[in-house]
């Protein structure tokens, strides 16, 4: 077991590991400031939708899974249900609806209706060890990986077909080769899908290992063994965290003008609004230097549109699978991050420069998409910061041996 640190180009991007390393500290600091501000810390979501794929197998009873909502009177008036429902009725677009949630044709996720769900203060809900594990957690991951099966253009979800495979292998490598690729049927898009999911899984594992509860002492702290076991002993998992970071940075970079023109001035506190814009512009500026993901090489060729529709359908299913996560805290962060990744992919794979124009297409993104995108980037950059800290712990431990 080596203290693994990837070097050189990051596949499917025009960026290398060293460049991302070079900005991680500054980006982490700017994003930490940004996500504590009111616009980015309140996230509205319906956490209690029924799991559409299998009967409820009981919720996590560990106190670590529990969560509290924010009273609507504590959030700025502009975001409250009554105000939003007035806006909604005047701007109905082409939508495909399921009860309470919907997607537009260009979306990679199901979104909640603005008027449904509760507000959560993400600052008060750290993504860390909760104790959620076992059959329920494994089944969710397994189902998410099973969505990486391209070639059938049926719309599983809309036809009500479950994507879940109930028997579980001991490891995902029984589904995929060691490098995470099913070589019988692989294509670039399929590999990208796998990297996105495996990178998300690795990032969540990094968080729960970094803020881990020692069951014997009751103390919270980094657990190096947990990190080595779940992430570092599979070097490609570490690489996919970088991959996701570059994908998200590219989306933020392309969205720069849109984000700069977005209306953050709804909190009533001018100092917060000024800080929000200042921090955001620092993040956008770094994203423009480093976010060199090359989306133009994807979805080309003969069946590009069919493949893209399948990709979208599968990722939308992933956002619905989040309703099957049996731990409130994990479900909240699962929803934030799948929405954030879906938003990034919509920007990269669906939008041309005209569509990104903030003046001709001001309603391109819902507030929850902007909040999810920036918080998801924060999650991945924080993971990279934790990976660095684990590397230091590993070096210190081995130098004293
Ligand atoms: P799991 O992490 O459940 O993995 C299952 C199998 O997948 C492993 O045996 C391995 O073969 C394979 N695998 C693992 N990582 C990867 C990877 N990166 N790429 C490819 N294959 C992989 N728990 C918390 O404590 N806090 C949280 O905030 C939290 N959030 C969660 C959010 C979601 C959406 C889900 C589904 C689960 C969450 N969990 C959380 C649970 C956590 O992810 C694990 O499922 C749990 O800790 C049990 O871990 P495990 O060792 O059984 O392996």
Automatic annotation (TrEMBL):
GO terms for molecular function: FAD binding; protein-disulfide reductase activity; thiol oxidase activity. Belongs to the EROs family. This is Endoplasmic reticulum oxidoreductin-1. Transmembrane segments: none annotated. It is a peripheral membrane protein. It comes from the Eukaryota. Its cofactor is FAD. One of its GO terms (biological process) is protein folding in endoplasmic reticulum. May function both as a monomer and a homodimer. Keywords: Disulfide bond, Electron transport, Endoplasmic reticulum, FAD, Flavoprotein, Glycoprotein, Membrane, Oxidoreductase, Redox-active center, Signal, Transport. It comes from Hypsizygus marmoreus. GO terms for cellular component: endoplasmic reticulum membrane. It is found in: Endoplasmic reticulum membrane.
């Amino acid at each position: 077991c080596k203290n693994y640190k990837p070097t050189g180009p990051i596949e499917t991007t025009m960026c290398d590991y060293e460049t991302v390393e070079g900005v991680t500290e500054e980006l982490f600091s700017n994003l930490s400031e940004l996500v504590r501000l009111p616009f980015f810390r309140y996230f509205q979501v319906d956490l209690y939708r029924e799991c559409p794929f299998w009967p409820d197998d009981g919720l996590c009873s560990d106190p670590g899974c529990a969560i509290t909502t924010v009273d609507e009177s504590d959030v700025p008036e502009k975001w409250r249900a009554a105000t939003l429902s007035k806006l909604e009725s005047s701007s109905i677009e082409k939508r495909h609806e399921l009860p309470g949630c919907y997607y537009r044709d260009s979306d990679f996720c199901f979104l909640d209706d603005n008027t449904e769900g509760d507000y959560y203060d993400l600052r008060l809900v750290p993504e860390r060890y909760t104790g959620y594990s076992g059959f329920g957690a494994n089944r969710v991951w397994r189902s998410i990986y099973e969505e990486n099966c391209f070639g059938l253009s049926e719309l599983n979800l809309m036809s009500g077909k479950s994507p879940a495979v109930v028997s579980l292998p001991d490891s995902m490598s029984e589904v995929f080769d060691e490098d995470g690729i099913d070589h019988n049927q692989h294509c670039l898009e399929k590999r990208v899908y796998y990297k996105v999911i495996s990178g998300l899984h690795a990032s969540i594992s990094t968080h729960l290992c970094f803020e881990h509860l020692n069951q014997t002492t009751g103390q919270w702290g980094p657990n190096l063994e947990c990190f080595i076991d779940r992430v570092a002993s599979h070097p490609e998992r570490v690489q996919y965290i970088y991959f996701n970071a570059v994908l998200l940075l590219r989306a933020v970079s392309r969205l720069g003008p849109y984000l700069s023109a977005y209306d953050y001035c709804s909190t009533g506190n001018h100092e917060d609004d000024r800080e929000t814009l200042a921090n955001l512009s620092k993040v956008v500026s770094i994203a423009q230097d480093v976010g060199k993901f090359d989306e133009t090489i994807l979805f080309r060729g003969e069946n590009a549109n069919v493949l893209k529709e399948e990709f979208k359908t599968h990722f939308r299913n992933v956002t619905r699978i989040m309703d099957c996560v049996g731990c409130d805290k994990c479900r909240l962060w699962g929803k934030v991050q799948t929405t954030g990744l879906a938003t990034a992919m919509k920007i990269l794979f669906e939008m041309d420069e005209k569509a990104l124009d903030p003046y001709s297409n001001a309603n391109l993104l819902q507030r929850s998409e902007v909040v999810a995108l920036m918080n998801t980037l924060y999650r991945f950059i924080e993971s990279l910061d934790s990976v660095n800290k684990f590397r230091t712990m590993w070096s210190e431990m081995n130098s004293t041996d």
